[in-house]
């Protein structure tokens, strides 16, 4: 179970550090080709979503790694589930059902990470 947690959480953390980091650091013009929704979303909100993703990634890795407040890994995984629920809602409201595959995969991985993390406590 511990190995499974580290594999899934590590991959998820890498994805969210990259994805969230882009939202925090890149301009709206550089994000637009990858994320059409940034045109109708205020940039402070895009940056906040990116920050939540980066913090969630850190929350998956740092507490179990240090052994301090390990329950935060579960909270981080649940938070990332909620991020994907928001992403799915956004895409579906824009009529973009065909691009929700990644959101569904990330939601399932985050839920699996939360479940695996509960076995570590």
UniProtKB/TrEMBL annotation:
Compartment(s) of residence: Membrane
Positions of transmembrane segments: 6-25, 45-62, 68-92, 99-118
Bilayer topology: Multi-pass membrane protein
Sections of the chain in a coiled coil: none
Name used for this protein in its record: DoxX family protein
Source domain of life: Bacteria
UniProt KW keywords: Membrane, Transmembrane, Transmembrane helix
Pfam families: DoxX_2
């Amino acid at each position: 179970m511990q190995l499974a947690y580290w594999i899934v959480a590590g991959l998820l953390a890498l994805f969210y550090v990259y994805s969230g980091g882009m939202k925090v650091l890149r301009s709206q013009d550089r994000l637009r080709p990858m994320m059409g929704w940034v045109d109708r979303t205020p940039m402070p909100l895009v940056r906040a979503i990116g920050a939540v993703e980066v913090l969630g990634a850190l929350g998956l890795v740092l507490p179990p790694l240090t052994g301090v407040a390990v329950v935060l890994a579960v909270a981080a995984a649940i938070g990332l589930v909620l991020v994907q629920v928001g992403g799915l809602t956004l895409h579906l409201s824009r009529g973009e059902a065909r691009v929700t595959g990644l959101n569904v995969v990330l939601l399932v991985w985050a839920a699996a990470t939360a479940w695996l993390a509960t076995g570590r406590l």
